[in-house]
Design brief:
Blueprint (H helix, E strand, L loop, with lengths): L1 H33 L10 E5 L18 E2 L2 E2 L6 H13 L3 E7 L7 H14 L5 E9 L1 H7 L4 E10 L6 E3 L3 H7 L2 E7 L7 H4 L5 H26 L3 H9 L6 H6 L5 E2 L2 H11 L10 E3 H4 L7 E2 L8 E8 L2 E2 L3 E2 L2 E3 H13 L3 E10 L1 E3 H15 L4 E10 L1 H4 L6 E4 L4 E3 L3 E7 L1 H7 L24 H26 L3 H7 L4 E3 H7 L4 E2 L2 H12 L5 E5 L5 H22 L3 H13 L4 E3 L4 E3 L1
Parallel strand pairs: 1-4, 1-10, 4-5, 5-6, 6-9, 11-24, 12-16, 12-24, 13-15, 16-18, 18-19, 18-20, 19-23
Antiparallel strand pairs: 2-3, 7-26, 8-21, 14-15, 17-25, 20-22
Helix pairs in contact: 2-3, 3-4, 12-13, 16-17
Length: about 600
């Protein structure tokens, strides 16, 4: 027995020591990774930009971004804020001679890509070069690369240029087999977020709006390529429509790219442009390293500066609670807007919205704070990839709204989904239910039975009221009649280019244009842009979401490509709790 306890004690001590060592090593990694080191930039350097991850609004506060821990590669995404600031800084940096766009995948939304593309166009005013090279060009990555002075592709590479398409996943057939009925309460002819649960194909109204905004997005892309490559837009449409680029050589023939080269040949050309001996390495710095150096106009910490413009980031789905850097929690964003409103050093607010919407209640809570802030100081909205449904709700009270031409916005509508699972629970599983209640409607929304006509009428009235509140808020903010807002509402989705024509957006422009407008409205010549809300510390974020991140990675690894459908079903479940003001979530765009 003594021997047994001896081994048990030894095991416990061993586990404790191993855990202590792991903690020490982990803390050491964090300290080493988070130490601020100025990156040395050599003369005749090239700034290398390779966007292989989705671009968030702000660079994540993650000191392990370039490390791998316990087999999990940490997110290496650089935020749009740092990308734009780095390109702007490189424009005037005498040590940077040009930019190399290398193997970009450009997985972000179209408005984000547009902002980066516009920054590159502005960079070219410095007369410095931009060279692009890739083994595979998607339409999005080519759209970005087309601004380059020279666009090259691997001789055996792939060039995707066939026009845009959008596919929607419909769940009605699967729900019917399971015996689950999605009971829909909605307002808005075009509010198509509910269609995957009640139809097996697109409605005529949804097909109309998708055709419209997809055509607008495609037109924007072709116009940009036409201006950069000096190719007639109609010719570009013909090339895509007839899939004329089937081999790498075809892309050269139609002047979409400048040549077919292997990477070593492109690197040699870059050496020639920077006068580097072919036998030596290029003087290159990645944009991730370049962004580490000081020079960003935004600061999370310098909140003592007078004449601030508060840049309030609202990114992700809208829900109640605190949220995080990737979701909009009404408590956190509302508190942030109050903080900016009550801070006398903050002279104006730029609300950066990148959201497909979410909870209508949470959206209204944030709208209220925007409205109150507007009474005290200027509020300008800058729209990202999406500012639709609830995302538009929180934006509509602003003094002025900026959007990119390919921002997805509008979708003014409300819906609710309540599941009736009797077919599954009783019809297939043999479960029955019985109970008592003290009120006629005490079990309203019970998933074990269908809604009665009276219950459906009650819920429809609540959704109608929510839609009235939504259209009323938009009408007041945009100085239009509710009748007019209703005519362009009904859940219809618009691009920024379309939205400006119908009065939902004031100007087409990027985040810097919004800042300049805020400064002008506040009468500021000198100011500091300060980012809000304060990003969570890495350790706090790690402790909060490590379990969910590990779980997500394991599920992704197990389900592979079918993970998308799992995620969609999970989102569907979340949507069944509260009335929603959101875009269709189950559309994939190519």
């Amino acid at each position: 027995m003594k021997q047994f306890f001896k081994f048990v004690l030894a095991t416990i001590v061993g586990v404790f020591v191993a855990g202590l060592v792991l903690v020490v090593v982990f803390v050491g990694i964090i300290v080493a990774a988070s130490s601020d080191k100025e990156v040395k930039i050599d003369d005749n350097s090239i700034l290398t930009i390779s966007l292989k991850n989705a671009v968030p609004e702000r660079t994540p506060n993650n000191p392990l971004a370039n490390l791998s821990f316990l087999g999990f590669d940490e997110d290496k995404s650089l935020g749009l804020n740092d990308i734009l600031a780095s390109i702007k800084k490189a424009k005037d940096d005498k040590q940077i001679k040009g930019i190399y766009l290398a193997d970009n995948l450009t997985l972000s939304g179209q408005a984000t890509t547009q902002e980066i593309r516009n920054a590159l166009i502005d960079f070219k005013k410095s007369k410095k070069f931009i060279i692009a090279y890739a083994e595979v060009y998607t339409q999005s990555s080519y759209y970005l690369a087309s601004v380059a002075d020279k666009v090259y592709m691997n001789p055996k590479g792939i060039f995707d240029f066939a026009g845009m398409s959008q596919q929607i996943t419909f769940f009605k057939g699967a729900l019917d087999k399971l015996g689950v009925e999605a009971q829909i309460i909605k307002v808005g002819t075009y509010k198509s977020a509910v269609e995957p649960f009640i139809l097996d194909k697109m409605s005529d109204a949804n097909r109309e709006q998708v055709t419209s905004y997809l055509g607008s997005l495609n037109n924007q892309m072709l116009s940009g390529i036409s201006n950069s490559r000096h190719i007639n837009k109609d010719s570009l449409f013909n090339i895509a429509n007839n899939l004329k680029v089937r081999m790498p050589e075809d892309a050269v023939t139609y002047k979409l790219i400048d040549g077919l080269k292997y990477k070593d040949e492109v690197l040699n050309e870059l050496k020639g442009l920077t006068k580097v001996d072919l036998k030596k390495n290029l003087h290159a710095v990645t944009i991730e390293s370049y962004a580490q150096n000081d020079g960003d106009d935004e600061s999370d910490g310098d909140k003592d500066t007078d004449n601030q413009i508060a840049m309030v980031y609202a990114s992700g789905e809208i829900n109640g609670g605190n949220g995080d850097d990737n979701t909009i929690g009404s408590d956190r964003i509302s508190a942030t807007l109050r903080q900016a409103r009550l801070n006398d050093k903050v002279k104006a607010v730029v609300l950066r919205v990148n959201s497909p919407g979410g909870s209508s209640l949470a959206s209204d809570v944030i709208w209220r704070e925007v409205s109150l802030t507007k009474k005290v100081k200027p509020v300008i909205v800058s729209m990202g990839d999406y500012a639709a449904s609830g995302g538009y709700y929180i934006a509509c009270a602003a003094d002025s709204i900026f959007a990119e031409p390919n921002t997805i916005t509008g979708s003014i509508g409300i819906f609710a989904i309540l599941p009736n699972m009797r077919g599954l629970l009783t019809g297939k599983l043999g479960l029955t239910f019985d109970g008592v209640k003290t009120g006629k409607y005490a079990d309203l929304g019970d998933a074990t039975r269908p809604l009665t006509p009276e219950e459906r009428a009650i819920l429809q009235n609540q959704v109608n009221r929510g839609y009235g509140d939504f259209t009323g808020a938009v009408a007041a903010g945009r100085k239009k009649t509710t009748e007019y807002i209703n005519s362009i509402g009904q859940g219809r989705v618009w691009t920024g280019e379309q939205a400006i024509k119908i009065g939902l957006v004031d100007r087409l422009g990027n985040i810097n244009d919004a800042v300049a407008s805020a400064a002008k409205k506040a009468g500021l010549n000198k100011y500091k842009v300060v980012a809000y809300p304060e990003q969570k510390s890495f350790l706090k974020s790690l402790s909060n979401d490590m379990q969910s991140r590990v779980q997500t990675r394991l599920v992704k690894a197990e389900l592979g490509e079918t993970y998308t459908y799992y995620q969609q079903l999970k989102t569907m479940q979340q949507m069944m709790h509260t009335p929603q003001a959101r875009l269709p979530f189950f559309a994939t765009m190519k």
